[in-house]
Amino acid sequence: MSDLHPCIAESENWVKRVIVKYNICPFARREVERGTIRYYACEEAKVKKVLEAFVMECILLEQQPDIETTLFILPRGFEGFYPYLDLVDLANDLLVEQGFEGVFQIASFHPDYCFDGEPQDSPANYTNRSPYPTLHLIREASMEKALADYDDPESIPERNIEFAQRKGGEFFIKLLKECQQ
Questions:
Q1: CA 101, CA 73: separation in Å to the nearest integer?
Q2: Does the pTM of the predicted model rise above 0.85?
């Protein structure tokens, strides 16, 4: 991994050491083991250029069915959570405009992720905190199939929040810091 962009290595560590290890996403392990997750570091920092790269990533994903999902990582330019949320809204709008509605969906992750109505320091926020701002491009057909094969998928967020609250913020701060190694 030493030849990878640091944000890719750290994000891959995060997926393996947090998301998979603690079963935050019960569907991630299979894709890690199959090697079907693409990690893409977008070096752009201007919204327009990021969105252009995002559309190109959608096209690449559409053309390469052997790639199950992409973590579109933003190592600079979107450190602030609210400008990042604005970008997420624009990216979702682009999915519709570019004909990808129903094909892909976005899951969003950010180092300062904060659920609406939650205090910033709530451990629940760590279920969506990542080393870098990240747009997770998910194939809707694959998600529908995975959810159909999973008992009680509605319980996943609640289970994750309970786990995060039980472990506490310091636990996750330490985990995220370890991803940088």
A1: 21
A2: yes
- 68-87: per-residue pLDDT in tens? 999 999 999 999 999 999 99
Mean pLDDT over 94-99 rounds to 97
With 0-12 CB in 10 A as exposed, 13-18 as middle and 19+ as buried, what is 66? exposed
φ, ψ (nearest 5 deg) of residue 138: -120, 135
- Cα separation of 107 and 124, whole Å? 16
DSSP percent split of the chain into helix, strand, coil, nearest 5: 50, 15, 35
Instruction: Note the pLDDT of residue 12.
Output: 96
- Taken in order 57, 139, 72, 16, the sign of the CA dihedral is negative
Tens of pLDDT, residue by residue over 145-171, are 888 888 888 899 999 999 999 999 999
Tokens matching residue 162: 């309970």
| 6 CB-near residues (< 8 Å, 6+ apart) | 75
Q: Given this model, what pLDDT does residue 3 score?
A: 54
Are the beta carbons of 128 and 106 closer than 8 angstroms?
Answer: no
